[in-house]
Amino acid sequence: xxxxxxxxxxxxxxxxxxxxxxxxxxxxxxxxxxxxxxxxxxxxxxxxxxxxxxxxxxxxxxxxxxxxxxxxxxxxxxxxxxxxxxxxxxxxxxxxxxxxxxxxxxxxxxxxxxxxxxxxxxxxxxxxxxxxxxxxxxxxxxxxxxxxxxxxxxxxxxxxxxxxxxxxxxxxxxxxxxxxxxxxxxxxxxxxxxxxxxxxxxxxxxxxxxxxxxxxxxxxxxxxxxxxxxxxxxxxxxxxxxxxxxxxxxxxxxxxxxxxxxxxxxxxxxxxxxxxxxxxxxxxxxxxxxxxxxxxxxxxxxxxxxxxxxxxxxxxxxxxxxxxxxxxxxxxxxxxxxxxxxxxxxxxxxxxxxxxxxxxxxxxxxxxxxxxxxxxxxxxxxxxxxxxxxxxxxxxxxxxxx
Length: 402
What we know:
- The protein has helices at residues 103-111, 130-138, 176-191, 204-221, 227-241, 285-301, 378-393, 396-400, and strands at 2-6, 16-22, 29-30, 35-40, 45-49, 54-59, 66-68, 72-78, 194-202, 248-250, 253-255, 262-264, 266-268, 271-273, 276-277, 314-318, 337-341, 344-353, 356-372.
- With 402 residues, the chain is of the alpha+beta class.
- Strands 9, 12, 15, 16, 17, 18 and 19 form a 7-stranded mixed beta sheet that branches. The chain has a 4-stranded antiparallel beta sheet with strand order 1-8-6-3, with no helix packed on it.
């Protein structure tokens, strides 16, 4: 029986993928659950396994082509014998001393003319991960050959004036991932009435709690107590009070979401990804921290799946880990709000007391809420951010639900 292999669901707001690499050719045998093709979206690299054991009858698209959701990729004849012996996987041609490479890692190595034996592997049994290769590409060394810019043969877009490259310049084609990220970010600006409101928060109370309980927390739960769990739960309480920030526009309708899937933006060498804490309101602080740590590790290994990054209702981006003092984050469509965290800096602050005002030094953080003004009024946006500020400055509120 012939079976069509189609592009699987690509996740929320992802409409297309690129066929990065076929692992089988027409006439090859393929086993059940064996990978047939590797797809690349603007978020992840996605393997498409065969649901049956059989023979590859036809391939509908070529490597490098763009396909939409549910498009036919190939046809497999279930139970049929192969026309020829199965080809050895690509990694078998590597030196005997090298551990087998995954398709994604092999493609990165081949496309960038790298020597995998010269890159230290951090995966299981010393295997190379996608993160290892990307890290090696970021820091050129004698052991890593830098990618050579391919000659540009395609005509420049009509809107661009001709440009002559200078001797100390290097022209490198944008990767598809970077092109898609650029397009999506610009689309977000063009489609939403985006506005940003700011506030500042005193981190003294949260820092005091961390200092007092970090050792016992880690001993009991096996994970460190970080700032992000406080902000995730502060955001959830604010979303409950201001549901428009957790909603989205669909045509002429507003969809209010009675669940809280909080995306946490993670920077990786290949671009920004946003894994999602599903039903984050039902997580404890320990579960929140453990899940965030797990996502961070999977992002570094290049192992995040579409399921990990789908169905977010609100996003938190922490530019403070890179030293950012202030920024205006861009919305993650179709979401209507995103919170930007920033660097903690000691600043002089005026404090009112019984004896009048005084100036004290406090650890302060600027917060930024970007929101879609079509659905969220300024009053709601400012009130939402004030609600987050209150929870962070008095974290006992999070424990007793105030």
